[in-house]
Structures are given as structure tokens and as C-alpha cells.
């Protein structure tokens, strides 16, 4: 890979910022609809609540990754998600990355720690999906 890759610290900082945006997305797209449903006596089972969260976040991430390769925090940190060779993502690649990121992060961050030992310093979910985070602009 000829181009310099963004460092782990930069990618983690972007993820920290992303958590704030995800909080806002969940507030508007999950909590508010649940409050309205509850007001009308239409509660959901725990399984349906989790499916709502997972589906909402998948819609958020996959849409932004497929439309420009960046979420707002990625734009701020000048990062972009691309295929392994820098090409645009395919839809199934974006979905696979999203799904692989859950266990990668939730199992004590093992997928993030993976980057410390990976030859290209990629997160495990990027390795699984055949994606990588690159600089959005030349620096």
C-alpha cells in the first residue's frame, strides 16, 4: 500500500466522536418513536427493541458508507471507508462490515486490539469485510 494509512489513534478518535452521533441517532430514531408507541399502549418485546436498534444503526452506517464512504465524524477526521484496494464499497461489503463490527467491539474490543497486531493495522471487522479506512484527502 503506497499511500500512508490513518493511524489507530485517529481512527479511535473518530469512533469516539461517532459514539456521540450514534447517541443522537438513537435518541431521535429509537427513543422518540418508542415514547409515542408507549403513549398509545403499543409496547414492543425486548427482541423487537433490539431489532429496532440494530436496524436503525445499520440503516445509518450503511447509507453513509454507500453514499460517499463517510459519516459526519469520518468527514471531520478526514477519513473515508473504502474497499481493500481503495475502490468504492459494495452494498454487501458495507453490511458485512456493520455486522462484523458488533462482536468486534462488544467482545472486549478484541477487533480493535487486533489492529495492534495486524500487518496493515486494520481492525478485525475491516479485515473480515475486505474494507479499510483511508484518508479522505491527501495530507
Please characterize this protein's 3D structure.
The chain has 139 residues and is mainly α. It has one domain (8-135). Helix content is 60%, strand content 7%. The chain has helices at residues 8-39, 46-66, 72-76, 91-106, 110-113, 124-129, and strands spanning 79-83, 131-135. A two-stranded antiparallel sheet has the order 1-2. The longest helix has 32 residues, at 8-39. The chain is elongated and about 55 Å long. The relative contact order is 0.16. The model has no long low-confidence stretch (mean pLDDT 92).
Topology diagram in text:
Layout lengths: L7 H32 L6 H21 L5 H5 L2 E5 L7 H16 L3 H4 L10 H6 L1 E5 L4
Antiparallel strand pairs: 1-2
Helix pairs in contact: 1-2, 2-4
Summarize the structure in short:
60% of the residues lie in helices and 7% in strands. With 139 residues, it is mainly alpha-helical. The model has no long low-confidence stretch (mean pLDDT 92).
Amino acid at each position: 500500500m503506497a499511500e500512508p494509512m490513518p493511524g489507530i489513534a485517529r481512527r479511535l478518535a473518530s469512533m469516539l466522536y461517532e459514539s456521540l452521533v450514534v447517541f443522537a441517532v438513537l435518541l431521535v430514531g429509537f427513543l422518540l418513536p418508542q415514547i409515542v408507541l408507549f403513549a398509545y399502549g403499543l409496547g414492543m418485546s425486548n427482541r423487537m427493541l433490539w431489532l429496532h436498534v440494530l436496524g436503525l444503526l445499520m440503516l445509518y452506517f450503511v447509507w453513509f458508507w454507500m453514499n460517499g464512504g463517510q459519516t459526519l465524524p469520518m468527514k471531520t477526521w478526514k477519513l473515508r471507508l473504502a474497499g481493500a484496494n481503495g475502490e468504492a464499497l459494495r452494498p454487501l461489503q458495507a453490511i458485512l462490515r456493520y455486522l462484523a463490527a458488533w462482536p468486534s467491539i462488544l467482545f472486549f474490543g478484541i477487533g480493535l486490539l487486533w489492529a495492534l497486531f495486524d500487518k496493515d493495522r486494520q481492525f478485525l471487522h475491516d479485515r473480515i469485510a475486505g474494507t479499510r479506512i483511508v484518508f479522505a484527502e491527501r495530507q
